[in-house]
Design goal:
InterPro entries: PC_trans (IPR000374). By secondary structure, the chain is mostly helical. It is built from ten helices and two strands, in the order αααααααββααα. The N and C termini lie far apart (52 Å).
């Protein structure tokens, strides 16, 4: 019995690792290239996440998921390729148009739809304004938090962090995630020479990412689904994989306004 439980616990490890490798290669190439290549990848990812969100929260009647996805791609691309202030309000359109279609979870859909748009904008801003190093650092913090949290939670178990919303998340995994993020921050400060603020900012950004994971879990629980979609083997949908990045990307820009720690306008 114990062997079966242990086997089931790690059953999704191989597809998770294989999918993660493919995403790492594609994402790494786009990040390295920057410019239009990275922006195009971000637009595609945000459009697919908008589609997943619309599908999970749809009500009876007309399914506007594809319309919302196309609109999300259009307004985000408009803001990325023609970055002028008066285009920013258009980022609200996917959330607003989505409320016109039958929707069973309007309170979850509208703010999360806007969050997806803001995340896309934040990621491209990080790459273009602060350089490749800042974006790689953000991804390292999120990945370290997620990976250490995954293995610590599966290995150590223990009390649940928020069982009503995310029954698999444990305090041991949560704390391990903070420690992983702290290690990334310490490396950037002690080795790469970044400002000291990066040390305390890293765990806060990891915590924001963990809240993003919990928020998406709450939406899935209310929708009665296990995964946002089945686009990524072993991970479910893009929202399942990038939910933490939604919150973390916005948090890193906000924290950097109060105590700057990101590299200054270095083009990678």
């Amino acid at each position: 019995m114990n062997k079966t439980v242990s086997s089931d616990r790690w059953a999704d490890l191989f597809p998770r690792l294989a999918s993660a490798l493919v995403m790492l290669l594609l994402g790494g190439a786009a990040i390295r290239a920057g410019g239009g290549w990275f922006a195009a990848l971000v637009v595609l990812a945000c459009a697919l996440m908008s589609w997943e969100l619309a599908r999970m929260t749809r009500g009876e009647g007309f399914d506007a998921s594809v319309v919302i996805a196309v609109l999300a791609a259009a307004v985000l691309a408009l803001n990325l390729w023609a970055p002028v202030p008066w285009f920013l309000p258009f980022l609200l359109l996917p959330a607003l148009i989505g409320t016109l279609a039958p929707r069973r979870d309007l309170l979850a859909f509208a703010p999360y739809a806007l969050l997806i748009m803001l995340c896309g904008l934040a990621l491209v801003m990080l790459r273009e304004i602060h350089g490749m190093g800042a974006l790689v650092w953000l991804l390292a913090v999120v990945i370290a938090s997620d990976v250490l949290g995954y293995f610590a939670g599966r290995s150590l178990g223990g009390p649940k962090f928020w069982p009503a919303i995310s029954p698999k998340k444990t305090w041991s995994g949560t704390l391990a995630g903070w420690i992983g993020a702290l290690a990334i921050g310490l490396y950037c400060w002690g080795v790469a020479g970044w400002p000291l603020a990066v040390v305390w900012a890293a765990p806060l950004i990891a915590f924001a990412g963990q809240l993003g994971d919990i928020a998406e879990s709450a939406i899935k629980r209310r929708a009665g689904v296990k995964d946002a979609s089945n686009l990524i083997p072993g991970h479910g949908g893009l929202m399942d994989r990038f939910d933490a990045l939604l919150f973390a990307s916005i948090m890193v820009l906000l924290l950097n306004q109060f105590a700057p720690f990101l590299p200054v306008a270095v083009k990678g």
